[in-house]
Input
Amino acid sequence: MEEDNVNGNPEAGNAEGAQTPDLGKFKSVDALVRAYGELESEFTRRSQRLKALEEAEKAREAAAPAEPREVGSEELYRQAKQNEGVCARLVSEYLQSLKGVPLMTGSGAGVAAPADRPRNLREAGNLALGYLRNQKN
Output
């Protein structure tokens, strides 16, 4: 009977006590193959859906600025120092916030002249006359 099993006769092998494979909850090999095909199709659909969602997320991240994350003051300082635009903006905003201080924000350096206070009435008149002459021009 071994010859019959070798030649492809499955019944001959079963007659000697060979067991059929354990198919679990499936009643036949055809049902198992059909369930495997459905499982493979579902896996393919989910993989395609996941890939589409990942691509949509990448596109959304590229279009929208990233959410700001919490960073320490040293990290902020390092990042601002590396970006010349941010550094210039910070300095400009700081200088604008200094009210009452005569500063030149462009090129050159501003120097405040010391107050010229008259010591008598004659010096006060000359100072006022000089001021009025400069105002007319």
Q: What stands out?
A: The CA atoms of residues 38 and 44 lie 10 Å apart. Confidence is low (pLDDT under 50) at residues 1-8. The first helix runs from residue 2 to 6. Helices lie at 2-6, 10-15, 29-63, 73-82, 84-97, 121-136.
